[in-house]
Design a protein that fits this description.
Layout (H helix, E strand, L loop, with lengths): L1 H12 L8 H28 L4 H19 L5 H22 L4 H14 L5 H21 L8 H5 L1 H36 L10 H18 L3 E8 L2 H8 L1 H18 L4 E6 L2 E6 L3 H15 L3 E3 L2 E3 L3 E8 L6 H18 L3 E3 L3 H21 L3 E10 L5 E12 L3 E3 L5 H6 L3 H21 L6 E4 L2 H4 L4 H12 L6 E6 H5 L2 H13 L3 E7 L6 H6 L4 E4 L1 H4 L6 H16 L3 E5 L4 H10 L3 E3 L7 E2 H13 L11
Parallel strand pairs: 6-7, 9-11, 11-12, 12-13, 13-14, 14-15, 15-16
Antiparallel strand pairs: 1-3, 1-6, 2-3, 4-5, 8-9, 8-16, 8-17, 9-10
Length: 626
């Protein structure tokens, strides 16, 4: 037990001999090689000045030339090149002692070289150099003392002198190792300061330093440099649904995949769920690398109870094609990434229009505040019909913005802006007010159309929202049963306890809920059972190709069966053909919504549409849009 304790303490005191980072090693090795090559002509000249002939002097330095050449050989590994340089430098010291006929002053070269070799922080060249000194002094000194020592005592007792010199070498080596150990600790601290603890990749400080260095080299060598910025899709939902420990494992898994797919790149976790990859490649090659990353992310990732794909959006920028500085590379890649996220395209390359788009979005966000106050927002309504009878069962309210200069804007142009700039509360309450007003107008006109309105995550996390809705129902004299609120799986999963509390309070008012875009989020069956919803809406992405894609058809069929077994109404979105209609009806789906029935219409046009259908002779009602 004591022995192992002593060994453990000794290991702690000694340097670990970790491999230096490539850039650090290359810089130090270059210094060793330059010194070795400079010593070759210096020692040859010293040999000539010492009275050696030209041939003899050249012969003396031939081994040094061979070792210096080996130290420069690119096909040899790091350790082999370091060992060649170490042997070369320590041989230079021995040759100096030999040429100076054992002068004590020449022996100091050994101490200098050993201190220099410590800079490799590698036990192999360091111990080999010490072994070389031992053999030189102990063996050669005993066989031919005059070639090693110029003192009479060295001639009389060479082994004693070898021991004395060995003691000096060991003392100097101990001092070198102390310095080596301290240097390792310093490098370790610096490495930790530049490394992301979770993934082992570089952190923000580390990648900034690497990009700056790479840009300097790229300008000097006229080489391109590419930057990839990856942002994981819906990572917050994974954290909120499965816990931060699962989210951490997902980040580690993404880091491992990046290492596997881009072994040549410098990789970093910038922050949260953002990753950066820097490559010595032009824009096209960097975009190809980005697509390989996306392909890798499509492979299912299993972490504890979660098995699924971890999608992402990537922006690409390059030097010198688009950017000239590190700040520009990151900013341009970030803007391209957001364009990829908006478009759902996976990866995009920065274009100058992205700058204009960013300014345009800021302008639009400022105008949106005034649009809500100035009644520039309007509703279009898309009907939902019974698949068995084609009877209209209700409508979904879809907001539009009648912009004075830009014309009619759809939600994808401004909903994200409202969420980013804290406008969702005002926007949703305004939409609810418009929807309730229209529902009351239809009721007065003898048309009974329940209205569905979409909610955002901000609404479900707003503890004031149920009271706001209750006040609007009272003000517009609308029955709670005539209002349906639609939420998505992902909206609920952002903060399940608060979202469920808000939904429960709204349900107590008599409002019904529909679960929208079912099948595209991270909710589980247990969570679905807890939601007080009466209707489940199948996402249009599954419905659109169900007539030609067996997998989509199977998903729709199982979803219909699930909903019916849970006692829920089933609505299929994206019904665009008669084939969709007939297949959904055969599966037992209750309701259809889509362009086959009608596109979203302004309130007055929808009123006429409903009246024409009601006025049609019995048996002629057709689900086709009229």
């Amino acid at each position: 037990m004591e022995y192992s304790h002593v060994v453990g303490r000794l290991r702690e005191a000694l340097p670990q001999g970790r491999l230096l980072p490539d850039p650090v090693w290359r810089g130090r090795h270059l210094g060793m090689v330059v010194l070795l090559w400079s010593l070759v002509p210096a020692l040859a000249t010293f040999a000539l000045l010492s009275g050696k002939g030209l041939g003899h002097s050249a012969l003396e330095v031939v081994p040094l030339v061979a070792l210096a050449a080996a130290a420069c050989a690119p096909w040899l590994g790091r350790r082999a090149r370091a060992t060649a340089a170490a042997f070369g430098l320590i041989t230079c010291s021995a040759l100096l002692v030999h040429l100076w006929e054992g002068r004590i002053e020449a022996h100091f070269a050994f101490f200098v070289v050993l201190a220099l070799l410590m800079l490799y922080q590698d036990w192999l060249p360091f111990l080999l150099a010490i072994g070389y000194v031992v053999v030189h002094h102990g063996v050669l000194g005993a066989i031919d003392p005059s070639s090693v020592y110029d003192h009479p005592g060295g001639m009389e007792a060479p082994w004693l002198w070898a021991l004395v010199h060995g003691g000096f070498v060991l003392a100097a080596s101990a001092a070198n190792m102390v310095a080596w150990h301290a240097s390792e600790q310093l490098l370790h601290v610096r490495e930790e300061a530049r490394t992301d603890e979770l993934t082992g990749l570089l952190n923000r400080r580390g990648i900034y330093d690497q990009v700056d260095r790479a840009l300097h080299a790229a300008r000097r060598d006229a080489r391109p440099l590419g930057l990839i910025l990856l942002d994981l899709d819906r990572f917050k939902e994974i954290n909120d649904t499965f816990g931060h420990h699962v989210g951490d494992e997902v980040l580690r898994g993404v880091g491992a995949r990046l290492r596997r797919v881009l072994p040549e790149a410098r990789l970093a976790r910038l922050s949260g769920d953002e990753f950066v990859a820097m490559l010595h490649a032009d824009c096209d090659a960097t975009l190809d690398a980005a697509r390989r990353v996306l392909d890798a992310l499509e492979q299912p990732l299993a972490v504890e109870e979660m098995v699924g794909q971890i999608g992402g959006s990537i922006g690409v920028a390059s030097f010198p094609e688009q950017a000239d500085t590190r700040v520009e590379l990151l900013r341009y890649a970030d803007r391209a990434m957001y364009r990829a996220k908006r478009r759902g395209s996976g990866a995009e390359v920065y274009i100058p229009e992205d700058d204009e788009s960013s300014r345009d979005r800021l302008t639009l966000a400022g105008e949106l505040r005034g649009a809500i106050a100035d009644d520039q927002l309007v509703l279009h309504f898309q009907p939902k019909a019974d698949l068995a009878t084609a009877t209209v069962r209700g409508v979904e309210a879809l907001v539009r913005w009648e912009h004075p200069q830009r014309g009619l804007l759809y939600p994808d142009a401004f909903i994200d802006l409202a969420e980013q700039h804290g406008l969702m509360r005002r926007l949703t309450l305004h939409v609810l007010e418009l929807a309730m007003y229209q529902q009351r107008e239809w009721r007065h006109a003898g048309i009974n159309l329940p209205v569905a309105v979409n909610l955002s995550p901000a609404n479900l996390l707003d503890m004031r929202f149920p009271a706001d809705v209750a006040a609007l129902l009272s003000a517009w004299q609308v029955s709670p049963g005539a209002l349906q609120l639609e939420v998505t799986e992902n909206t609920v999963m952002l903060d399940p306890p608060r979202a469920l509390d808000t939904i429960a309070r709204l349900s107590e008012l008599g409002i019904t809920f529909a679960l929208d875009d079912f099948g595209t989020g991270y909710s589980s069956l247990a969570q679905l059972k807890r939601l007080p919803v009466t209707e489940l809406k199948i996402d249009r992405s599954f419905v659109l190709e169900m007539t030609t894609n067996r997998e989509d058809a199977a998903i729709v069929r199982s979803t219909v069966d699930l909903a019916r077994n849970l006692g829920l109404e089933v609505v299929a979105e994206g019904v665009e053909t008669q084939a969709h209609w007939e297949q959904l009806a055969a599966l037992g789906c209750h309701t259809a919504q889509g362009y086959h029935l009608s596109r979203p219409l302004p309130a007055d046009e929808l009123t006429d549409w409903v009246r024409r259908r009601d006025a049609a002779p019995p048996g002629t009602s057709n689900p086709i849009a009229v």
